[in-house]
Structures are given as structure tokens and as C-alpha cells.
Automatic annotation (TrEMBL):
Protein source organism: Couchioplanes caeruleus subsp. caeruleus
Family annotation (SUPFAM superfamilies): NAD(P)-binding Rossmann-fold domains
Domain of life: Bacteria
Protein name, UniProt field: Enoyl-ACP reductase
Taxonomy of the source species: Bacteria, Bacillati, Actinomycetota, Actinomycetes, Micromonosporales
Gene3D superfamilies listed in its UniProt record: NAD(P)-binding Rossmann-like Domain (3.40.50.720)
């Protein structure tokens, strides 16, 4: 890449999460890293710069101004953007980065946005070498890197390929992002009006590079309720569907397909969350499943949406500093291999998942793209995933930042521990 004015531009630096990412970079970027703050309001950017106590340059660019976004993209090596819903505000910036050969990373959890970006920009980004890496926050780094390190461990042990693989949110404390709710609201509005987009949004392989190349594994449902023992003999209680699973699973399947199905042709993946081990655990799991469906239906119907819009978090809103600090999450991913062995990976971090931990993950993603070029996967450019676009460089950075990312053997092919 030719010399650029900036190493990293934080786009949306005046938003709630954008400020958190800028704060993280101010505290953790290596000395000499050239960071700039970008958004549509110079006065608000200046206020953020004063709050951070830095002398970073400011870049004014509206999300609807294609010329300004093209100039921004051409001036930096990496763009990290928190401006969503991405389907409304992110397409021009992603296109500008793909055209300029500029690496890009975001926090999207929007299937339709990523699908359109793949269709519009994957080949262009490959030709320019731009790594367009979506979903570098709680959506979907724990899922994607968790399966990535699990695959590495199984391969290193010569234990075959991954088959049935289940993510379990073992514990979590944190709030729901107003931006996430707004993205869900926007996608519901779009798919209500277009049957073809509705099919894409609901397909388990909607982000796959070639649906026809996917193995026939039968139904890949998202809203699954299970007994813990169905996943691993030692796992107690019941498991409810994880509300981010419908998106994360598609990112993980895209990683497998982009790697020519390295995880395995029999790799099946789903995401759940533990509802504990009390006698009420099955009822809680069933209630969570019903609640997820009810939220989607409620946002789709005008009368109930009117009520929900007044009680759900709004874009730009978020928890206070203490709540962000006291949040946490622990995710365990269980798999059985083609040799009959069982393995698990753990991904655990401190901080509110959608805010503090996400700011860390997105910040380290940008730093890996900017500072660790020689350690990135050899995939080159394209519309990629955290595992295929950043891979071990990000895993190493997250571990160094205090995130636990580990693997363990649960049993060998004979069933012995």
C-alpha cells in the first residue's frame, strides 16, 4: 500500500460507541500510530478531541457524500466505522474503501448489508487488496475466532474435522445496544416489503460465497432449544436460542466456505445461551425462544412497535461507565470431530459485551490491520470475516489485551478424558 496520511480513521467518532473506540485507541495504540477522527460535524469532532486530550486530525465527511468518503478512504490505511444502521449509512463508505484499496472494519450485524456488500464489492476489493472485514465486535468475533482456534487445535492434534459444533453463552452481563435494535428495526422494514430479500435474510447460507457449493446438511435452524447434555454429556440445564445466533452463524459459515470448507464438509453450527440448572431452566429456555420471536413480530406490527419504540434503547444511548466496566461474558464452543473426539474453546472477556468489550475488539481489529500486516492471513483482499481477514493477528492481540481465548480436549475418540 502506498504511503497514506493516516493509519486509522475512526468514522462516527462522535457517536456513543465511536467515542469508546477512539478512547480505546488513545490509550492503547502504539506510539506513532497516526489516528484521525471523522464524522459529519466538525464542532462535535473537536469536542471529542478535547475530551480525549489528543491532537489527532479531524476529517469531515457525511455518510451521503460519496466524494468526501472517497477522499477519506484514499487518505488512510484503515477505516473503522461505527455508523449504522449500515444498510442506510454504510454502503458508500464500504465502496470507497474497496475502490481505494483501504482496509475497513465495522460492527455490523445486518445480513442484508453484508450480502449486498459481497455482491457489490468483493471482486473489487480483491483487485485492490482491500480487506473489508465486517462484524468486529461482540457480533461476531467471539463466534468466528472461537471456531477458528477450535479448528486450529483439532487440526494440530490430528483429530479430524469439526462436525456438530454449538456455541453456548455460559454467562453474560450487559445491556442491549440501541444501535443493534435500530439495525433490527431497519431490516424488518426492508424484508416486509420484499420477498426476495426476506429469503436472503432467513437463509442459513445467505453470506456464503457459493450456495451451490455448500454441503447438504439438512435444516440449519436458528431458534433451537436444547438440553445441555445434547451438546456435551457434562453440560447441565437447558439452552435457549442466542439472540445474535441468526447473524453470527452465517459469518462462521462464510469463514468455512472462504477457506474451502477447512472446518469440514460435515460442519454444522448453531448458537445457544444457558438458562441455568434450576428446575425452571426448561421453562426459561422456552420463554426465551418465544420472546425472540415476539420481539421481531412486535417490531413488525405498527401498534406494538409504537410501544416498543418507547421502551427499547435508542441509537446513541448506552450504559454508564460503571455498568460498562462491570459487564462481562463467557462463551464456550463445543464440537465433536470426525474421529469421535470432543473439544471445547472458551472466549471470555471483561466489560459490557456490546460496549466496553466491543470497543476493545473493534479497536484491536483496526490496530491489527494497520500494524500487523505481515501476520494477516494470506487471503488478500475481499469482503471477509474476522477469522479470514485478520485471524491469528487479532487472536494474539486480544489475548495480550486480557481476553481469554483457550481450547481444551474433552475426550479422545474412545470417549476417555
Amino acid at each position: 500500500m502506498t504511503m497514506r496520511e493516516h493509519d486509522i480513521v475512526v468514522y462516527g467518532a462522535t457517536g456513543f460507541v465511536g467515542v469508546l473506540v477512539a478512547e480505546y485507541l488513545a490509550a492503547h495504540a502504539p506510539a506513532g500510530t497516526r489516528v484521525a477522527l471523522a464524522g459529519r460535524s466538525e464542532s462535535r469532532l473537536e469536542a471529542v478531541r478535547r475530551r480525549l486530550g489528543v491532537e489527532w486530525p479531524l476529517v469531515v465527511a457525511d455518510a451521503a457524500d460519496s466524494d468526501a468518503l472517497a477522499t477519506l478512504a484514499a487518505a488512510t490505511r484503515v477505516v473503522v466505522t461505527t455508523v449504522g444502521p449500515y444498510a442506510k449509512y454504510g454502503r458508500a463508505l464500504a465502496r470507497a474503501c474497496a475502490a481505494a484499496g483501504t482496509d475497513y472494519t465495522d460492527l455490523t450485524g445486518e445480513v442484508l448489508f453484508v450480502r449486498s456488500n459481497i455482491d457489490e464489492n468483493h471482486d473489487l476489493a480483491r483487485s485492490t487488496g482491500a480487506r473489508i472485514v465486517h462484524s468486529c465486535g461482540f457480533d461476531s468475533i467471539p463466534s468466528d475466532l472461537g471456531v477458528h482456534v477450535l479448528h486450529q487445535r483439532v487440526t494440530a492434534d490430528g483429530a479430524g474435522e469439526l462436525t456438530d459444533t454449538t456455541l453456548v453463552v455460559t454467562s453474560m452481563r450487559g445491556g442491549v445496544s440501541g444501535g443493534t435494535i435500530d439495525s433490527l428495526r431497519h431490516q424488518i422494514d426492508v424484508v416486509r416489503k420484499d420477498r426476495d430479500l426476506r429469503r436472503i435474510a432467513t437463509s442459513p447460507y445467505s453470506l456464503s460465497p457459493d450456495r451451490a457449493a455448500e454441503p447438504d446438511l439438512g435444516r440449519q435452524g436458528d431458534l433451537v432449544s436444547l438440553r445441555g447434555a445434547d451438546v456435551d454429556p457434562a453440560l447441565r440445564g437447558s439452552l435457549a436460542p442466542f439472540f445474535m445466533g441468526p447473524y453470527n452463524t452465517r459469518i462462521v459459515r462464510r469463514s468455512n466456505a472462504l477457506r474451502q470448507f477447512a472446518y469440514g464438509r460435515s460442519f454444522r453450527y448453531r448458537e445457544t445461551m444457558s438458562t441455568g440448572t434450576s428446575p425452571l431452566s426448561p421453562l426459561l429456555a422456552a420463554g426465551a425462544k418465544v420472546g425472540m420471536g415476539a420481539l421481531v413480530v412486535g417490531l413488525a406490527l405498527p401498534p406494538t412497535r409504537f410501544v416498543l419504540d418507547r421502551v427499547l434503547p435508542k441509537p446513541g444511548e448506552g450504559p454508564g461507565e460503571r455498568a460498562r466496566r462491570e459487564g462481562h461474558f463467557t462463551i464456550d464452543i463445543y464440537t465433536r470431530t470426525t474421529t469421535g473426539a470432543r473439544y471445547a474453546a472458551r472466549f471470555r472477556a471483561k466489560g459490557d459485551p456490546g460496549y466496553a468489550a466491543t470497543a476493545l475488539m473493534l479497536g484491536e481489529s483496526a490496530l491489527a490491520l494497520a500494524c500487523d500486516r505481515d501476520s494477516l492471513p494470506p487471503s488478500g483482499g475481499g469482503v471477509l470475516t474476522p477469522a479470514t481477514g485478520i485471524g491469528d493477528a487479532l487472536t494474539d492481540r486480544l489475548r495480550a489485551a486480557g481476553v481469554e481465548i483457550t481450547t481444551r480436549v474433552l475426550s479422545d475418540p474412545s470417549g476417555k478424558k
